[in-house]
Design goal:
The chain has helices at residues 3-24, 31-38, 42-48, 52-70, 77-81, 85-105, 108-117, 122-148, 157-173, 175-182, 189-203. The chain is mainly α. Helix 1 (3-24) packs across helix 7, helix 2 (31-38) packs across helix 3 (42-48) and helix 8 crosses helix 9. The mean pLDDT is 87.
């Protein structure tokens, strides 16, 4: 197998695995199901990922890498600290918009997070060490910096981080309901901008 073919097949498998793990959970996903979804042989799946645990971890890492690539500098404290107040305010808006768009296009990362959080065990412990501790620290630092610039209200930074995260995830989760009830697609760029602007206006009200 040529290097390009090997990389392409690996990406096919990771994408299929992430979809299945997010829909069926760890126990409900098999090598055979991943192979079928990826349009590759089971032998090729196991060539790339000898164990199911390795496949799951690699699929989750792939999702977080995609998120970090979509939001490259927004959680970088050093980068944010160099911005003036107006630019930082715009960055907060862009971060919220970017997270909504990424979550709408890639719901697997949130679904897997919820699945593992609902049944705590070694996989959740691995996710905490691999992703969540760093995410929480970076997010909390961003909130504190925004509070120092009076861009977000004074409150416990972790609580404020939960509020912002809930704003993003709930909006995406109820989008199908919103679409059917109102006839408006809440995931257009225009509607996302409208939602984020109104949400931040409430938070930033004196």
């Amino acid at each position: 197998m040529q290097p390009d073919d090997k990389q392409a097949s690996r990406l096919d498998i990771l994408t299929a695995a992430a979809n299945l793990f997010s829909e069926l959970g760890y126990n409900g996903t098999s090598f055979a199901a991943v192979a079928n979804a990826a349009c590759h042989s089971k032998a090729l799946v196991q060539y790339h990922f000898p164990s199911k645990e390795q496949l799951w971890k690699s699929a989750v890492q792939h999702l977080w890498q995609q998120r970090d690539q979509a939001l490259p500098q927004y959680l970088d404290e050093q980068f944010l600290s160099q911005l003036d107040e107006q630019a930082q305010n715009q960055m907060i808006r862009q971060l919220c918009r970017g997270l909504i768009r990424f979550t709408a296009d890639n719901p697997q990362w949130v679904k897997i997070m919820y699945l593992e959080a609902s049944n705590p065990g070694p996989r959740l412990e691995w996710m905490v060490e691999e992703f969540f501790q760093q995410d929480f620290a970076a997010g909390s630092a961003m909130v504190e910096l925004a509070q120092q610039r009076h861009l977000l209200p004074e409150a416990d930074p972790m609580s404020m981080l939960f509020i912002l995260g809930g704003m993003v995830i709930h909006y995406v989760n109820v989008a199908p309901i919103t679409r059917q009830v109102t006839g408006i697609d809440p995931l257009t760029d225009q509607q996302i901008d409208h939602y984020v602007d109104n949400f931040l206006r409430i938070l930033q009200r004196p």
